[in-house]
């Protein structure tokens, strides 16, 4: 049994990790820490765990955690996280970091978008991005894994193969994403009160959300190509799920029709994810309901335009922001890190 | 035009008052105060008012308000409200108070349930309860009106006539109420975050909610009878609306059947609210959707039991907690206070 | 009092018309027809009208309606509607048609997109599009008004002025719209069952929805410019509201920065809608919650790109699909047709 | 591996069974039948299974199913189900029946409440009720298991021990239940359209729902006591979950206080479910969110009244109507039938 420590246990991603571990045949939660609720049972913070989980919250003590756990899932906010990850790494615990602290490939990019000095800049560039569909080998041996952002997962997965295969224009990509409210976290704020967001949809952080550069950076790392993405996130009245509607301009070949372009793009995606147990290139248009509470990804392509005059391609990709966008992706990473089948417990 | 001052302008009931006044042909909002957001446009706090309302928030200054307004709608929390109402009354402004400070008929009852010393105990007992269906004459001349609680409105309206007419047992009444989340206010709290309450229903404050004694007190004042109510509120995943399912034991007469009891109870309610423009005794079972965004009340009765052996009666009553349960009821009270038809602007 | 007939009374737009007329000081519902529910009280079909509306449904008999009503609101499906409108016009009743039958300016365009022969092709081209912000004079004297589509309203209102003023490229417009479920109507279908759409967002009819050509056609009529729009609608888990996120490419001038472009586009919209009581160009990013249950429109612009290298502009526009997207727009049209202030009863 | 056949595969409970089997380590779905969609892939009917399930729907052919499956989960409507169960039993397949056809202990009771002649009355009385907390031994060897109703599960589990232990009055029990919409099934109906039920709560079938007699019958079978239950179901705007708020009158002992009664009732429930992995008697008040997507049950008790004058007890019980109220309960039953640990795959 893999022994797992949960660092920062009061939020939605932490609950999701705990819930998934209860059903995991080869891993178990052995430690849960919290600065604010030390001593309380984890099930008091998350009443859905009542009667199912006996763990009490403890303070963060790396040396003790090293005795109790093989891997730490670090669910702390950016900035705070890097410091904690360093302390865990120092005592030899492998870490899956849910924050953005080790996702970007350059310190200036991080410091520009996150507005803080990076606490451990030396490690930027040598932490693997936890997307096993692309980095399984590095993840298998990693000491630290940067768990991907939720929006980026929904955009990178359909875009990376198309950019890598030179099938679309790199400088004309629009990602219009719709996320459930859990992505905004569990801290009480006016903006996530039920009566503020229920029965309403709203755009926010237009062209200024931190996940935009994460998408660009990763697609570059995967494909070797620089891309320009205009990213608009929307807060949608639902607990979970991200739907990204992505507008791209296909590179056209002589004689292309709507149909040939559609076939080419769908084919490229199908080929890219052949054998991947969690990524499904589907004929129907995915809805978030098709994937919530799972680690699965569904995506499809529709090419616009008149028959012989193909226009933009519209890609739709659906994931669960708390699952493949956070906690089940972390379990998948853990499985790969410890030599299990990627699907174990998922 | 009646000039209206809004005291405490940042919450949902205040927004609802502002919204209703925009459509009122004989009243207008002239003042809005806020301790926390003084100076800001009201429309910045409530973006739905953008382009529709020019008022800026000002500090609370009774003398100045007396020059600008004929009536104040006081949307402050209990305790704080009574003090403010006293200051407004002192400068001659008529007040409709949304808090519970003047609803109950006895100081000890108030202090027991609200856990604070009453700031102006002398006025307890001489403030009219703002339910024009029962107290229109007193409201017409009142200096202060205690605007009813939301849950109490949904229980008093169907119960008071039945108790007054001696049709049900007074000591065996259960009120099981389901409320939308707006009843919990607009202050950020974990318990009203979207992801905590969405897709979930929960009971709270079982047999210990302050609106229980308010129901008992008012039914006693209206009917002259003491009643015993077991009250359970529930938080329901919707913005607005209260549905109260009320279990009572009808007094039976010789030869009563399910049908005769049903007819008697429905008849008593129909008679009690004949000519009341906002209260509808209906044949269908009301849903909150039938009344939200209106000042209307829908209620019905179903008698349980075998044909010749009538059992309990189940009463269902639906209101909108922010409308008839708060802000539109206040407008109705204002209309009555200023000699307008009760339905004006509603 | 304007006497209004409702033709096709069982759907959501019909209920919304009835509800708005109850609050209208100078119009009243005098007739409501229904093929399927003839004889039933309208309030039985729409229980929210219980106790508030005495009208019973009657069969469709144009001659009798001509005696009872001054204007008909025709809430029938496309195809069926044109025939009915013709019969109403024949007996001299002015008509506001909610269907798409008279919205487009060419018969082939209609027949291509709607897949049926137009029942009254002679009138195509001589029916005014019921958007009083552009066509108030024609509406004032019209015998037939084509009430705009919901999605088109949310796109035409922000785009038409920018195209007319030559501020954006005409051939690179993407409209990504998110609509509440009421837009799909009240006929029982698997796709609009609660458990199919709740807690889920989905794209549909990608680049193939009939409202795309309606947007293009109207913007052309308003601006004289041909535009190319890629339109993707999404079904969003909420009753009402449309949010359109619109991606356009601004025409750049020498020395333009993000800020100058932003100022120019916002300025053009503010100028276009100056004095329009229902259209608000706002600084905040609109959410559908800011406009639902009103006839109001909120829109804003955000320009992407680096400071001195402005990129695309993102326009966000929010309306209520059942209000400004259907029924309150019809009331606004009626007001204009009968010489009332456009805001009467709204 | 246990081979499972799904009979009637297009509804929500069938999807839930398929979903649970995908994660079950010792059972697999081998057959899925459907009258209406024969030949289609199951994943076309339920797009959340895309890429995860290769099964195509076949017609119902008992002999062939007998070769392909060890157990059938029969998700048909009442009446139709009994006939099918009989055919399956005839070819030696063990059956878990989701309908009500074999839940009640008497033919007249069934025929009175369901309004149809029972197709296989001989088996009434000899089919075990699939609640392993009470009938594990019978289930282990059963050929047919009647899977419990959703509302009954939420009422029987807290009430049966209290009645059996003679702790409450048998003739004064009120069950006020709130259910998510999935309980109403997946057939398109006006009453379960999104816009009819969203943002609304409504009572229905007051004192006349078929699950009332099922509760009474089962509590009688478990406890030997006859009980009288007044049952009111409510449709709540959420996908899944049932919360039952249950009002009972405790039998009082000399010197009882609120506290002693509370302790006695909680103690009895804790004792009854000691060692049961899915039933949790908790101190907090359960919300449906604490149990949805699980097979778990949470319940608690609050006693009303003044300190030394205990009144009614209010019991709150939360389950997921599609899980413990249907499909995961069926998996639990299957586990018991095939000698697995009851928690396998759950």
Automatic annotation (TrEMBL), chains A, B, C, D:
Catalytic activity: N-acetyl-L-glutamate 5-semialdehyde + phosphate + NADP(+) = N-acetyl-L-glutamyl 5-phosphate + NADPH + H(+)
Key words of the record: Amino-acid biosynthesis, Arginine biosynthesis, Cytoplasm, NADP, Oxidoreductase
A GO MF term: NAD binding
Subcellular location: Cytoplasm
Semialdehyde dehydrogenase NAD-binding domain boundaries: 3-142
GO cellular component, one term: cytoplasm
InterPro entries (alphabetical): AGPR, AGPR_AS, AGPR_dimerisation_dom, AGPR_type-1, NAD(P)-bd_dom_sf, Semialdehyde_DH_NAD-bd
Pathway: Amino-acid biosynthesis; L-arginine biosynthesis; N(2)-acetyl-L-ornithine from L-glutamate: step 3/4
Pfam families membership: Semialdhyde_dh, Semialdhyde_dhC_1
BP term (GO), one: L-arginine biosynthetic process
SUPFAM superfamilies for this protein: Glyceraldehyde-3-phosphate dehydrogenase-like, C-terminal domain (SSF55347), NAD(P)-binding Rossmann-fold domains (SSF51735)
Active site residues of this protein: 150
EC id: 1.2.1.38
PROSITE patterns for this protein: ARGC
HAMAP family: ArgC_type1
Protein's job: Catalyzes the NADPH-dependent reduction of N-acetyl-5-glutamyl phosphate to yield N-acetyl-L-glutamate 5-semialdehyde.
Record family assignment: Belongs to the NAGSA dehydrogenase family. Type 1 subfamily.
Protein name: N-acetyl-gamma-glutamyl-phosphate reductase
């Amino acid at each position: 049994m893999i022994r797992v420590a949960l660092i920062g246990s009061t939020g939605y991603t932490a609950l999701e990790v705990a819930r998934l571990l209860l059903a995991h045949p080869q891993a178990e939660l052995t430690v849960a820490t919290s600065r604010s609720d030390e001593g309380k049972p984890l099930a008091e913070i998350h009443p859905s765990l009542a009667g199912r989980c006996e763990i009490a919250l403890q303070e963060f003590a790396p040396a003790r955690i090293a005795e109790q756990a093989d891997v730490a899932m670090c669910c702390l906010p950016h900035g705070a996280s890097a410091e904690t990850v360093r302390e865990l790494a120092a005592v030899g615990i492998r870490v899956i970091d849910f924050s953005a602290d080790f996702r970007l490939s350059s310190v200036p990019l991080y410091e520009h978008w996150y507005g803080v000095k990076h606490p451990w800049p030396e490690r930027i560039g040598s932490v693997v991005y936890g997307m096993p569909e692309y980095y399984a080998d590095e993840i298998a041996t990693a000491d630290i894994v940067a768990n991907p952002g939720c929006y980026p997962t929904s955009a990178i997965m359909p875009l990376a193969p198309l950019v890598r295969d030179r099938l679309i224009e790199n400088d004309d990509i629009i990602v219009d994403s719709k996320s459930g409210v859990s992505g905004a976290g569990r801290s009480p704020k006016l903006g996530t009160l039920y009566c503020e967001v229920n029965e309403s949809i709203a755009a926010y952080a237009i062209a200024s959300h931190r996940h935009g550069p994460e998408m660009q950076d990763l697609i570059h790392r995967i494909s070797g190509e620089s891309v320009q993405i205009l990213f608009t996130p929307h807060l949608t009245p639902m607990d979970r799920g991200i739907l990204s509607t992505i507008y791209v301009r296909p590179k056209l070949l002589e004689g292309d029709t709507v149909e040939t372009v559609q076939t080419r793009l769908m084919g490229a995606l199908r080929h890219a994810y052949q054998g991947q147990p969690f990524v499904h290139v589907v004929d129907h248009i995915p809805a978030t309901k098709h994937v919530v509470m799972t680690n699965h990804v569904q995506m499809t392509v529709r090419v616009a335009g008149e028959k012989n005059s193909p226009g933009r391609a519209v890609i739709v990709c659906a994931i669960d922001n708390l699952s493949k966008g956070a906690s089940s992706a972390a379990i998948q990473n853990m499985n790969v890190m410890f030599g299990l089948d990627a699907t174990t417990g998922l």
